[in-house]
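Sample intake sheet
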Amino acid sequence: MRKTTPTPADLARQAGRIPAQPGPREVSSDMETQTSGVIAGAGPVTRPGERPTVRLREGEGNGDGTAQEPPRYAPEWLRLREPADAAARAADLLDPLRIRLADLPGRPGGLVVHDLGCGTGSMGRWLAPRLDGPQHWILHDRDPYLLHFAAVGSPRAAADGSRVTVETRRGDVARLTPDALAGASLVTASALLDVLTREEIDTLAAACAGAGCPALLTLSVAGRVELTAPDPMDEEIAAAFNDHQRRGGLLGPDAVTAACEAFADHGATVKVHPSAWRLGPYEAALTAQWLRGWVGAAVEERPGLAARAETYLAARLAACAAGELHVTVHHSDLLALARPTGGL
């Protein structure tokens, strides 16, 4: 029987059971073919001239008579990246977070955690079992399909065995107010800051300051990528990708610096820690999907790169399939410790 080449969707479903030595597979020499199967979220999924958004919608439409926008992030992509996200998150930020949470006023129901842009709930699965005491997680996302996955897959017990409960909400992340976070013990998010504008980050910082709650904001792109063996095109692709991230006023790799300034301006103490993806043969499916999205976004930003990028991507995918490629994708985690309210 002839063995067929797996599609990106097939690779996504295989996440978590990738063999130590991935076998070779065919690599298309056509740029469009190589990037056409990019899972939503791994690369550019917007229409020409359209601004990516994390705005959440109420109801079935947008409230203005227009149809709701299609999902930007496929659950396959979020599942595929979850193990790498979990390995990358900065555990060193947990001790100062625990100390601050212990200083907050006690609540009968325990901690109340707002997870913004929760996707399939990977932050809750990582963090809830690392914190003691009862927890109630409020999961925010624009996509009800993702909210369903997040609620069903949420952890049920904290580090000390205490109960963890969840609820889901759809709303506008960019227009959070202190009232929306009333009673919050903690705000969390993953891969969110880099798809916000400076104004939206300031709104988030102001809301956390007004509520007097800390924020743990993880896995924001840092704009730096390292691949082995180095190729002269690495820096060109990275620069074009970073420019793509900044489209429409979004901050992309500048987001962490902007967030540090915004939270500090609102009186918070800010700590930043690196949280890089380190991808090797065991993460071949994620690496291949990331490569397609990374190069695809760069070419969308700078079409003149297309011809050389085709050859570059084919070579990188071949090395990935052979288990020879190692990639470090740099991210940063940020912990903002707002001044507690209520006289503390």
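Comment: The two ends are 70 Å apart (CA to CA). Confidence is low (pLDDT under 50) at residues 1-29, 45-67.
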